[in-house]
């Protein structure tokens, strides 16, 4: 049926997001390693805070998120006035597109960048600009070369998803310093807490006016189901995001759980140490089986197979064994599988299954 009602240009170019819930939900003994969730779960203090919040479900939540921002400021030594909280970091990344890009603007990200970046660019009507990487590592010179007088946003995850690779802080600083004056650098630190002694761009935000850092509670804090993220940026950028976001964007239980999770630094540290230990074990075990991966700084590894056919066959075999990993063909990496670092038994199960797969060929 012909209709005059059409969405904004670009929206029909958006491919639907694939891969949230496990396709084997309901089956027993399924191991879901496809969404980079924390195998140790949330802090018990966060679970308790969530339960306590249930007593006041008839009340609207805080609009200014003051208590959560104070916790973030205490733990990360940032200025609470320049923190904004969102429905996952995804909401903030999207709002940055709406606020700073739009029709005629260019939004830059790298070839294997997070799959939502092109969606955020299309959603605001901007033109996505895809920059090549060097062996699955972000290339700052290539980004700088791609910038024009229409570049408004650069999305950059460090560590990157799905490669797990990182670029040094000095390289990020060189990028920020070399950008055209109208361009805002968005440093996506979704996996930052997995890197010891890493500020993920905090110092750069303090020193410059063209950098904003986003963070999430979905990964190391184990709160993917709560949908909480935050950003730290220059005051004018934070003021803009506060105007755009919904006044009650975060639910009271989500705010309570996130605040408790942020303050339970012992749990966060335990998750970081366990992840590093089993990530390195998993990567070494798969490498011995002839499945290498890039050095990962995150809570997943990008396992590389001989070719697309082998990656697909291995994915199918793992699935037959109840193990769900992520195909990353949509990221331009059809010969790879992204595998979340689970706990010890999960990692052992993956190495065992890949060993059986390799042995059967
Ligand atoms: N950035 C990157 C690089 C991610 O991998 C993710 C989650 N997969 C996000 C942002 C968004 O996470 P959330 O909205 O759960 O905070």
UniProtKB/TrEMBL annotation:
InterPro entries assigned to the protein according to its UniProt record, in alphabetical order: Aminotransferase_I/II_large, HisP_aminotrans, HistidinolP_aminotransfase, PyrdxlP-dep_Trfase, PyrdxlP-dep_Trfase_major, PyrdxlP-dep_Trfase_small
Keywords: Amino-acid biosynthesis, Aminotransferase, Histidine biosynthesis, Pyridoxal phosphate, Transferase
Chain positions found as N6-(pyridoxal phosphate)lysine: 219
Biological processes per GO annotation: L-histidine biosynthetic process
EC number: 2.6.1.9
Functional pathway: Amino-acid biosynthesis; L-histidine biosynthesis; L-histidine from 5-phospho-alpha-D-ribose 1-diphosphate: step 7/9
Catalysed reaction equations from the record: L-histidinol phosphate + 2-oxoglutarate = 3-(imidazol-4-yl)-2-oxopropyl phosphate + L-glutamate
Pfam families associated with the record: Aminotran_1_2 (PF00155)
Cofactor (UniProt): pyridoxal 5'-phosphate
Example of a GO MF term: histidinol-phosphate transaminase activity
CDD domains given in the database record: AAT_like
All copies of domain Aminotransferase class I/classII large, residue ranges: 29-353
Family, per entry: Belongs to the class-II pyridoxal-phosphate-dependent aminotransferase family. Histidinol-phosphate aminotransferase subfamily.
Quaternary structure and interacting proteins, as annotated: Homodimer.
Protein name: Histidinol-phosphate aminotransferase
Name of the gene this protein is made from: hisC
